Amino acid sequence: MPRAKVRGVGLNYDVVGERGPWVLLIQGGRQDMELFRPLAENLAAAGHRVLIHDRRNSGASDIALDSAVSEEETFADDAHALCSQLGALPIIACGGAGGSRHCILLHLRHPGSARGLLLWWPSGSRPAAEQLAEQYYGQFITAAETGGMSAVVATPYYAERCARVAENRDRLLAMDVGEFIATMRRWRQFFLDGADMPVIGVDAETVRSITLPTCIVPGHDTIHPRHIAEQLASILPNAEFHDVPPAEPAEDEAARRQARLAHQRRLADVFLDFLARHP
Q1: Domain 12-125+209-277 adopts which CATH fold?
Q2: CA-CA distance, 279 to 157, in Å (whole number)?
Q3: Per-residue confidence (pLDDT) for residue 46, from 0 to 100
Q4: Residue 90, preceding bond cis, omega within 30 degrees?
């Protein structure tokens, strides 16, 4: 898999498709880029080049926690720099859950870099922000406070990061525990301060200034509540709201995979129809 040095950090990425308009696809949370490769393949089959990547601190990319801004803003800046290196700008920004937030931040922090937004399952609300702040940062603050960086490396999430990229272990163990805790607290506060905004970290007035054609598909759970997508669609001046049923629950992994594939096919159909009407 290709790797790129982006703003001093090694990022794992891939391009699906050989020609056509560029789409930047950003998955949610701290998920691996492979999770939504089927969606990328569906978009590529319709004539797009789709850039997928593991954000720093996730998947098979490097760990780097020295940013002066929030991790969310850092993700957006990294994505812009990666697109620039590959000659992909301006792009169609496609993001799910946390990825929808990163697409919006990409557009706001780098005007002119995106020419449309395809967003599904935007996360939001105070309960969601508080839960995500603990999941992404709080648990690692606790680990560092009780056992130093060795305890952080031993957590399941960071243990996996070290297994995927061996150098990440040395990077973590070399960090000053006080600086690590301070960075985690600052990044956690970004979530908590933005908990009541329509997009975590972006107020309503700023969201209203986004005039890009936007397609929004709502989520169906407490982290991605439907009303957050509805509110976002009502604020954005050029947004369309499209319902896509969630993947069917399944008992075994094979059935769950088939349900995910079918769900991503439905997402692709909605997005492709939108793009055909907003070339």
Answers
A1: Rossmann fold (3.40.50)
A2: 40
A3: 97
A4: yes
pLDDT score at 249 = 75
pTM of the model: 0.94
- B/e letters for 125-160, b = 16+ CB within 10 Å, e = fewer, are beebbebbbeebbbebbbbbeeeebebbbebeebeb
Distance, CA of 180 to CA of 33 (rounded, Å): 25
Q: Could you tell me whether strands 214-217 and 239-241 are parallel, antiparallel, or unpaired per DSSP bridges?
A: parallel
Q: Are 77 and 109 in contact (CB under 8 A)?
A: yes
Six token digits for residue 197: 């905004």
Residue 119 φ/ψ region, left for φ over 0, alpha for ψ in the -120 to 50 degree band, beta for the rest: beta
245 pLDDT exceeds 90? no
Contact status, residue 5 vs residue 230, Cβ threshold 8 Å: no
Q: How far apart are CA 276 and CA 33, in angstroms?
A: 26
Residue 89's nearest CA partner among 115, 68, 69 is 115
Domain ranges in the chain with CATH number 3.40.50.1820: 12-125+209-277
